[in-house]
UniProtKB/TrEMBL annotation:
The keyword Acetylation does not apply. InterPro entries: AB_hydrolase_3, AB_hydrolase_fold, GDXG_lipolytic_enzyme. This is Alpha/beta hydrolase fold-3 domain-containing protein. Residues 124-338 form the Alpha/beta hydrolase fold-3 domain. It comes from the Eukaryota. The lineage of its organism: Eukaryota, Fungi, Dikarya, Ascomycota, Pezizomycotina. Keywords: Hydrolase.
Amino acid sequence: MGVDPGKPIQLGAALKYAALDPDNKGGPSYGHYLELDPVFATLKDTADAAVAGLWSNDNWDMFRAAWRVPGPLPADCPQPVTDVSESYQTIPMRDGAEIEIKIMTSTKNENKNTSTERQGNVCVLRMHGGGWAFGWHGSEAVENLHAANHPNVVLVSIDYRLAPEHRYPTPLNDCVDTLKWVKANAASLNINAEKIVLLGDSSGSNLYLALALKARDENISGIIAMMLDWPNGCHPMFHQKPRDEQGFELESFVQNHNASVIDANVLEFCWDAYVPDAQPDPYHSPLLADSFKGLPPAFIQIAGYDPIRDEGLAISEKLKKDGVATETHVYKGLPHCFSILFGDLHQSKQFQEQQNTFLAKTVKAANEGKPE
């Protein structure tokens, strides 16, 4: 069974869905990405102690509050109010509940609200990370501010309901319903309903890859690109199927089982919160989908010292095999979410620059009527 929000948070003492192997060096193609970055190696012990402190909270309210503490913004980051305007709104979901969205755009764009100007505005639809169980609008604050500061961009962040109180498929349904709401309310948002870019981080990337599959399967138009940060691709219980049927390595869950920031025990805890008593389903484990054919162009960034590294690489392989234009970057020897936690690393700055460049190219291509 899944975790109970009324009980203390407790990670498993041992893995349930994978057998540990101390001799596992990763697969032949991707195992070398584990080798620690020398600068991060000097920060690792401090980082491990800080993250361990977050997991020491003994109830869900304290745990979630600890993850909501905002960090300082880098000097080169666009600033709220002066560079990026922010507003909030509640919108209805299919079951009668309401969730909050956060709307962000460059202050230079605020007065661009004519019909002609609206046609050039792309909506970046953000799904935050946090293992489907924690996280909020501010989880990827720096990325959101950079994206919203682009000309012709309006970012909409989804505060989807969290597991374990709201298990699969509720968080995904919230994202689907928000996509439909955004399209129906494009004029009030000053966006073009047929120019939507999905932006997700970790479990957020899992949600929007599932959202892209839903949109394809249900003929919901408008998504022109996907931007995935270290995506979860498959419940570890079902890794063997894509290994056997598609030849994916999927060794990093064991090779990096004790990685910094997010280890395999944490991932199992989060999966149990989101999908207790899991059954095979491509809408929570997209690597189980028969095909990615027809999905929008993708941009993927992956950490080498991450238990879900190989899931991200398998997603990239599957997209390319199925004819989807895909750009992939791997950062050797760095942990999950490194760009958020270690903003001074040169790779973190590169990470943000790559994302900015892809978004700018996508917006330009959309407004020139050319595919990315």
